[in-house]
């Protein structure tokens, strides 16, 4: 299947996170206000899925907007991948917000009015809760738009909306009262955007490459995403040698 490559990467990333938590003690019980093993182990994994989902969404959309033609099958594949990544982004953001609520408030998980009222207050009045709620809602909107919008012009606005989902995440990364807050937020935001484009673009190319290998008759698709390593350099060297030979022949004839 064409998602086996990203799925394998996702599995390795989750296992690596769990091993790192176990080895480094990041999920060890806290002496004061311990949120429980569910939060200690689940929150880092949820944040990992948020980062991968955001990267896959933005990277695939950027490729569809600026590197692919709507006439190519790779265009539709990249949009499908963006939609799947956006769905992961949405679910992981909702889970992260919920686990963050449990960590910050230290309220035991229950199904009663007190728990519901505390959760409602956290997501409506507290900036941290508002940030994760906004991220989840934006990611959900991007998921729907990835299925509904197919024109490149419209996808530019969808891409901008997906990038906007990173803004609440960037605002969480630096204390508002600290010196150089605006500079730090801007630097973190740019880092998140371009890291997402880089990683998400690589994941999308893996998906397109595997599809191209299964459909070698699609020449335009194959020429971009199924070239062998070093093939473009060999072609470029051949063209340079041909030009030199022509130039040498022309100078000899004159």
List keywords for this structure.
mainly alpha
- The total beta strand count reads 0
Task: Give me the strand/helix succession.
Answer: HHHHHHHHHH
What's the mean pLDDT score? 83
Low-confidence stretches: 219-224
Termini, distance in Å?
Answer: 59 Å
In a nutshell, what does this entry contain?
The protein contains ten helices and no strands. It is mostly helical. It is elongated.
SSE diagram, text form:
Layout: H1 4-24, H2 37-66, H3 73-105, H4 113-125, H5 127-148, H6 152-164, H7 166-171, H8 181-214, H9 219-225, H10 231-253
Characterise the protein shown here.
- 80% of the residues lie in helices and 0% in strands.
- The protein is an all-alpha fold and 254 residues long.
- The chain has one domain (4-214).
- It is elongated, with a radius of gyration of 23 Å.
């Amino acid at each position: 299947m064409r998602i086996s490559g990203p799925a394998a990467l996702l599995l390795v990333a989750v296992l690596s996170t769990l091993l790192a938590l176990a080895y480094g003690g990041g999920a060890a019980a806290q002496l004061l206000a311990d949120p429980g093993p569910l939060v200690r182990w689940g929150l880092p994994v949820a944040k990992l899925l948020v980062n991968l989902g955001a990267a896959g969404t933005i990277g695939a959309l950027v490729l569809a907007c600026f590197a692919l033609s709507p006439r190519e099958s790779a265009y539709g594949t990249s949009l499908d991948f963006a939609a799947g990544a956006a769905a992961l982004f949405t679910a992981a953001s909702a889970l992260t917000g919920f686990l963050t609520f449990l960590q910050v408030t230290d309220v035991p998980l229950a199904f009663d009015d007190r728990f519901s009222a505390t959760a409602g207050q956290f997501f409506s009045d507290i900036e941290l809760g508002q940030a994760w709620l906004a991220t989840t809602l934006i990611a959900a909107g991007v998921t729907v738009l990835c299925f509904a919008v197919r024109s490149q012009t419209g996808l530019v606005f969808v891409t901008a909306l997906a990038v906007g989902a990173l803004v609440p995440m960037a605002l969480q990364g630096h204390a508002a009262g600290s010196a150089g807050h605006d500079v730090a937020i801007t630097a973190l935001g740019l880092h998140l955007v371009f890291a997402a484009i880089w990683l998400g673009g690589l994941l999308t190319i893996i998906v397109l490459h595997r599809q191209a290998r299964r459909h070698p008759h699609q020449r335009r698709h194959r020429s971009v995403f199924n070239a062998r390593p070093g093939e473009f350099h060999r072609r470029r060297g051949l063209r340079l040698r041909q030009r030199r030979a022509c130039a040498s022949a022309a100078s000899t004839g004159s």
